[in-house]
Design brief:
Blueprint (H helix, E strand, L loop, with lengths): L29 E3 L2 E3 L1 H14 L6 H23 L6 H15 L4 H17 L1 E11 L6 H19 L4 H8 L5 H4 L2 E5 L6 H9 L9 E3 L2 E12 L3 E10 L4 H16 L4 H8 L15 E2 L5 H8 L11 E3 L2 E11 L4 H13 L3 H16 L3 E2 L1 H9 L4 H4 L14 E5 L2 E4 H11 L8 H28 L1 H30 L1 H10 L5 E2 L2 E10 H8 L7 E8 L2 H17 L3 E7 L1 H8 L9 E5 L5 E7 L2 H9 L6 E9 L13 E5 L4 E11 L2 E2 L6 H23 L2 E3 L1 H13 L1
Protein name: Peptidylprolyl isomerase
GO molecular function, one term: isomerase activity
Keywords: Isomerase, Rotamase, Signal
C-alpha cells in the first residue's frame, strides 16, 4: 500500500526492547538513536489524522499509522543530521511560521476577540441616553481634573435625589448643544460614540446615571433612559405631503391618498401624482437603506410594525410634513462572521485600540508573573526631560543607573538601558502632552512590545497545542526539503539511474491487448442508419430517393450548399444508365467525389457520405449537442468503454435503450512490452518509491529504533477508552 501525501510515503517498522525502569509518566513511546519521542506527541499526530478521516480506527490501522510515524521521524532526524534546519532560508521561513502560528494563542489576539464579540453584541442593542460634559484639557493639572470629577459626582447625587437630569445638563454641561437639547443624544449603537462613552452607556442600566468617566473631550456622566433591541436595516418608499403654516391641508391630502391605496390604486402612480418629494417621485418614492435608529421617531414604531414587503402605514407626521410609508425590504442585523472584518477594521481605528493595548498589558503582567520595580522606574523617569517633546532626548550611555532592573518577566529582565534605548528610537516631535505624560505613553508602548516578545518565547515551552503545531510545521518543512532532494528530484534528474531501474523491471511494464476503437454514441434511429454504411471507410449521413427530374432538382438543391462547402463529403448515386447520363451533368467538376453505380431501378438512390468524424458529429448534432458523440482512441482490453463480450474485431451495435452505440474494433494487438517514453510517469513514480525504500533501509541501519512495549499498550488502552 502506498500512503497518500508528502508526510508519509513508505514504512518500515522495528520494535525494540522496552525499558521497565522508566516510570509510566516519563517513559518515551519510542526512541530513534538517542532521541526520545513521547506518547503525547504521537497521540497529537494520530488524533489529528483521525479527525481528517473517519474518526474511528482498528488496532491494525493504529499499527500501520505508527509505522508511518516512525518512518517520518527517521527522515526528519536525518534531515537535521544533514544540517537542513541550519540553512538560512529554512531558519527565516521558521521565524515567520513561529509568529504566524502563535497568533491564536497570544494575549493580544484573545483580547482582540473579546473586543470583537463585545462590539458585535452592541450592534444588537441600542441605548437612549443623555449626558453632561465638563471639559478638561489634555495637560490639565491634577487639581483641575479632581475638581471636574467631584462636580460630576455631586450632579449624579442630585439626580439620585430626584432633580431633573435635563435641567442639570442645561445648567452645567459644556457640550454646546446642551443649551438646545438638554444633553439628550437619542438612540445610538456600537461605534457611534467614542469607546469610553459607549462603554459607560452600555454598562449602565436603564434609569441610572453612570459614574464620571474620561474621554478625549473631558469628563462625563451619562443618564440611560432606555435600551431596545436593534432591528437592523430597512428600505422604505414614501409619499410626502409638504406642510406649510397649516398642517390640516397636508394631512387631508395624506388621508385622501391613503384611502385610494386602501381601495387598491397603484402606489407608483399615486407617488408620481401626489408626492412633494421631487427627487424620487418618479422612482416610486424609494428611500435609501437606513438603520431603524436613523428613522425619525414618528416613523420608528410604524416602520417596525410593517411586516411584509408592500405593507403601507397610516399617515405619519414628521417635522416638515406628513408621510405615508411602504415597506420595500427589511434586513436583520447580520451574523458576526459576515461583519467580522468590518468590526476588526473599526476597532483598529478607534479608542478600542488603546484600550486593547491596556488590557493586553494587564493580562500579560498577570500571565507572565511580571514584577515592576517602582523605585528604579521613578529614577529612570526623572532623567527624561522636556527634550522628549522635541523628539531629541538622549541618555548618558555611561550612566550608573542603566543596569538597574525595571521589570522581571518569566526568565527575562528589562533594564533602564532597555527603556532608554526604546525612548531614543521611538520619540517623535510634536506631542501635545507634557514630558512626563509622553514618557508614560512611551513606557506603555515599551512594556507592550517587550512583554509580547517574552510571551512568544514562553509560548513554546508553556502551550502544548502551539508547540505541537509549530513542531508539525517545522518537521513537515524539513521532511519536504530532504524528500525533495533525496527522492523526488533525484528520480527526475538521475536519468542513468532511471534507465537502469526501467531495464531491471522491464517485465513490470507491459501493454495488455490493445485495439483502435471507434465509438459512435447516439439515438438508435441514427445509429441504425449508420450501420447500413461501410463504417470502416465512410459514414452515411443521408439517403435520398428520386424518381423524376423535378425530384432530382429538389434533392440537388438541398445537397449543393453542404456538398460544395465541405471537401470531405462524398456522394454515391445508384441509378439506371439513362439516369446516370442525366445526373452526371450536375457534377462536371466533382468526378473524384461522386461515385455512380449502375443499377436497373426505376428510382435513383443518392447517399451522402463522409470520412470525417467531426463532420459526422456536426451533421447530426446541429443545435442538439447530445444527439451524436464520436470518439476514436487506442484502448487496452478490459476498459470502461467496450464491454468484454464485444472485445473482438468487427462492427458491433450495443443496444442501451434510446441511446446506444456502435463500436468498430480493429487491429487487435497482442500484449507487448512498453517503451520508457510510453510509461515514463509511472516509472518515475516507481523509481521514487524504490529510492525511498532504499533510503529508509539505510536509515534503519544507521539509527536503532526501540519501542516501549508498555507505553504502546497504554496508547492502545487510551484510544480504546475514548
Amino acid at each position: 500500500m502506498k500512503p497518500q501525501g508528502a508526510l508519509f510515503v513508505l514504512f518500515i517498522f522495528s520494535f525494540g526492547l522496552s525499558n521497565p525502569a522508566f516510570s509510566q509518566k516519563e517513559d518515551p513511546l519510542f526512541t530513534i538513536g538517542d532521541e526520545a519521542f513521547s506518547t503525547e506527541e504521537f497521540l497529537y499526530a494520530f488524533n489529528k489524522n483521525r479527525q481528517a478521516t473517519s474518526g474511528s480506527f482498528t488496532e491494525q490501522e493504529l499499527d500501520d499509522y505508527f509505522k508511518l510515524y516512525v518512518n517520518f521521524r527517521l527522515k526528519v532526524k536525518e534531515a537535521k543530521a544533514l544540517g537542513y534546519d541550519k540553512k538560512p532560508a529554512f531558519v527565516e521561513e521558521m521565524v515567520g511560521y513561529k509568529k504566524q502560528l502563535a497568533k491564536p494563542y497570544r494575549t493580544e489576539n484573545l483580547i482582540n476577540e473579546e473586543l470583537v464579540r463585545e462590539a458585535y453584541s452592541r450592534t444588537l442593542e441600542e441605548v437612549e441616553a443623555s449626558h453632561i460634559l465638563i471639559e478638561i484639557p489634555a495637560n490639565a493639572s491634577p487639581e483641575d481634573t479632581l475638581k471636574a470629577y467631584n462636580l460630576l459626582l455631586d450632579i449624579k447625587k442630585r439626580v439620585g435625589n430626584s432633580e431633573s437630569f435635563a435641567t442639570l445638563a442645561k445648567q452645567y454641561s459644556q457640550d454646546p448643544s446642551a443649551a438646545q437639547n438638554n444633553g439628550y443624544l437619542g438612540y445610538f449603537g456600537a461605534f457611534q460614540m467614542v469607546y469610553p462613552f459607549e462603554n459607560a452607556a452600555f454598562k449602565t442600566a436603564a434609569g441610572k446615571v453612570s459614574d464620571p468617566f474620561k474621554t478625549s473631550f473631558g469628563y462625563h456622566i451619562v443618564y440611560v433612559h432606555a435600551k431596545r433591541k436593534a432591528l437592523g436595516s430597512i428600505k422604505l418608499a414614501h409619499i410626502f405631503f409638504k406642510m406649510n403654516a397649516d398642517s390640516t391641508l397636508a394631512y387631508a391630502k395624506a388621508a385622501e391618498v391613503k384611502a385610494k391605496l386602501d381601495k387598491g390604486e397603484d402606489w407608483n402612480s399615486l407617488v408620481a401624482q401626489y408626492s412633494d418629494e421631487g427627487s424620487n417621485k418618479n422612482k416610486g418614492g424609494e428611500l435609501p437603506w437606513l438603520t431603524f435608529r436613523q428613522l425619525p421617531a414618528s416613523f420608528y414604531t410604524a416602520a417596525s410594525g410593517l411586516d411584509k414587503p408592500g405593507d403601507i402605514s397610516h399617515p405619519l407626521k414628521a417635522q416638515n410634513g406628513w408621510h405615508i410609508i411602504k415597506l420595500v425590504e427589511k434586513k436583520p442585523v447580520p451574523p458576526l462572521e459576515e461583519v467580522r472584518t468590518m468590526i476588526e477594521s473599526r476597532i483598529s481605528g478607534d479608542d478600542r485600540y488603546s484600550s486593547r493595548n491596556d488590557q493586553t498589558i494587564d493580562s500579560l503582567i498577570s500571565r507572565l508573573n511580571v514584577k515592576i520595580f517602582l523605585e528604579p522606574k521613578r529614577a529612570a523617569f526623572s532623567l527624561i526631560d522636556g527634550r522628549i517633546i522635541e523628539g531629541n532626548w538622549s541618555y548618558d550611555s555611561k550612566g550608573s543607573e542603566l543596569k538597574k532592573v525595571l521589570v522581571n518577566a518569566a526568565n527575562s529582565q528589562l533594564t533602564t538601558e532597555d527603556f532608554f534605548r526604546y525612548v531614543e528610537i521611538n520619540q517623535k516631535k510634536g506631542s501635545n502632552l507634557t514630558a512626563e505624560k509622553y514618557a508614560d505613553e512611551l513606557w506603555n508602548s515599551f512594556l507592550l512590545e517587550k512583554l509580547e516578545g517574552i510571551e512568544l518565547q514562553q509560548l513554546y515551552a508553556t502551550n502544548s497545542a502551539y508547540r505541537f503545531l509549530y513542531n508539525e510545521y517545522f518537521d513537515g518543512t524539513l521532511l519536504f526539503e530532504v524528500m525533495n532532494e533525496k527522492v523526488w528530484q533525484m528520480a527526475n534528474t538521475d536519468t542513468v539511474g532511471l534507465s537502469s531501474f526501467f531495464s531491471e523491471h522491464r517485465g513490470d511494464y507491459t501493454w495488455n491487448e490493445r485495439a483502435d476503437v471507434l465509438s459512435i454514441e447516439g439515438e438508435n434511429k441514427v445509429l441504425k442508419s449508420l450501420m447500413s454504411s461501410s463504417i470502416d471507410t465512410l459514414f452515411l449521413l443521408r439517403k435520398y430517393t428520386v424518381g423524376t427530374s423535378s425530384e432530382w432538382g429538389a434533392a440537388k438543391a438541398g445537397l449543393a450548399e453542404v456538398f460544395n462547402s465541405i471537401d470531405s463529403l462524398r456522394l454515391s448515386i445508384y441509378a439506371n444508365e439513362k439516369s446516370v447520363r442525366e445526373i452526371k451533368t450536375a457534377f462536371p467538376d466533382e468526378a473524384s467525389r461522386v461515385r455512380f453505380i449502375k443499377d436497373e431501378i426505376n428510382s435513383s438512390q443518392i447517399e451522402l457520405l463522409t470520412q470525417s468524424k467531426s463532420v459526422l458529429e456536426k451533421y447530426f448534432n446541429g443545435l442538439d449537442t447530445l444527439s451524436l458523440k464520436v470518439s476514436s482512441t487506442l484502448l487496452e482490453k478490459d476498459n470502461n468503454l467496450v464491454p468484454k463480450e464485444y472485445w473482438k474485431a468487427g462492427i458491433h451495435f450495443v443496444n442501451d435503450g434510446a441511446f446506444s452505440k456502435i463500436l468498430y474494433i480493429k487491429n487487435i494487438q497482442q500484449p507487448a512490452r512498453k517503451e520508457l517514453g510510453e510509461v515514463k510517469g509511472k516509472v518515475v513514480s516507481d523509481y521514487q518509491e524504490f529510492l525511498e525504500t532504499t533510503w529508509l533501509n539505510e536509515l534503519k541501519a544507521k539509527y536503532s529504533v526501540k519501542v516501549n512495549a508498555r507505553a504502546w499498550k497504554n496508547v492502545v488502552k487510551q484510544l480504546n477508552e475514548k
